């Protein structure tokens, strides 16, 4: 079990651990970043219009 000082240091660094293993990704993502509206537009031909409207509605509601 981690000491209070170790936990404090872990919390301050923003790193979460489980059983001593870091949950931080080992490297930065290599894929291009895409905004949600662009992603929705890109997949709009693959989903039904009612599902697209539903996702769009929830996106704007929780944005």
From TrEMBL:
Keywords: Nucleus. PROSITE patterns: RST. The keyword Glycosyltransferase does not apply. Residues 27-63 form the RST domain. It holds the Pfam family RST. It comes from the Eukaryota. It is found in: Nucleus. This is RST domain-containing protein. Residues 1-29 are annotated as: Disordered. Transmembrane segments: none annotated. Residues 1-21 have a biased composition (Polar residues). GO terms for cellular component: nucleus. InterPro entries: RST. It comes from Nymphaea colorata (pocket water lily).
């Amino acid at each position: 079990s981690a000491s209070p000082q170790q936990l404090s240091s872990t919390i301050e660094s923003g790193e979460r651990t489980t059983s001593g293993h870091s949950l931080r990704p080992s490297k930065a993502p290599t894929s291009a970043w895409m905004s949600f509206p662009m992603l929705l537009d890109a997949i709009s031909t693959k989903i039904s219009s009612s599902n697209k409207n539903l996702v769009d509605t929830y996106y704007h509601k929780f944005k």
